[in-house]
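Human: Here is a favour to ask of a fellow structure person. Comparing notes only helps if you start from a blank page. Give me a protein, with the fold worked out from its sequence. Please set it down just below, with no commentary around it:

Assistant:
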Amino acid sequence: MPLTPDHPLLDGRTGTSSLVRAYRGDRPERTPVWFMRQAGRSLPEYRELRVGTQMLEACLTPELASEITLQPVRRHGVDAAIFFSDIVIPARLAGADVEIVPGTGPVFANPIRTAQDVAALRPLEPGALDPIREAVARTVAELGSTPLIGFAGAPFTLASYLVEGGPSKDQQRTRALMYTEPQLWATLLNWCADVAGEFLVAQVEAGASAVQLFDSWVGSLSEQQYVRRVAPHSKRVFSHLRGFDVPKVHFGLGGGEFLRAMHGIGADVMGVDWRIPLDLAEERLGGGVPLQGNIDPALLGAPWRILEAHVEDVLARGLSAPGHVVNLGHGVPPDTDPDVLTRIVELVHDR
């Protein structure tokens, strides 16, 4: 299904924006910049807005999700908004019993461990994504010429939360299931891919100008494991967007050793974490791939002269790619001084 004529990419609002141009391999006059997790905990206005509201409730209340998405655009002058949501939202909308526990993260009441558990997973009902569509439409109406990036968690990361029952440092149960029950694993990841794909489609149809698939835990895998057991399902997510001409970004934390395989799922742009320099990432990808990244979040608290030199180095190495969008190598830490992010935006825009 093609984009409608009133979509921001087609009606003159975002099609020639610096972000979309860079994502499509162009070099706009000003290098675009935005930050993963720019909306949320680091902003005092976010903390004030969230008083008395649970995380998932905020994600599923269109007025709140839209306002939270817009806050960093107003404050920092970034070149894109990233839709405020959570990796587990598609599972929640499909009926999974999950809550965000403060200090812990997403916790599932009934972890997926058996064939019966997987068989009990339900598809998304037709109207389940209506709050997402409304939140995106509200946001896009406010953003004008600033693009909105749609967001979803990749199948491996969503499956990891489902199997582990919550966050895990090493995903041991998840990887064990992947090896011992390959057919069950494939069924689970197909379900994850389909709910994530429908989640992205809803955002694009409502006005998102690009999408990012975020694989938080992929770094726990070997390249062989990724290629055999994960990549086909991540590709399935993007297959839901067939016919929609929107840039697709893929980011995997710790995935620098198999960037080419991650790019091969159908991504147009590769996000790169802080572990490898952008010129080496471009070399591993074989050249010709637009990049996003990769300021080390740990340096956001460093003296400005150190952070400034690091940002300059990221910009210089980003010249190896046909297009470059400056970002962090992961999300904004919650204790970040928001003024530092604003200062980075000004530095990037001045170069």
About this structure: The CA atoms of residues 55 and 100 lie 6 Å apart. The chain has a mean pLDDT of 96. The longest helix spans residues 182-205.
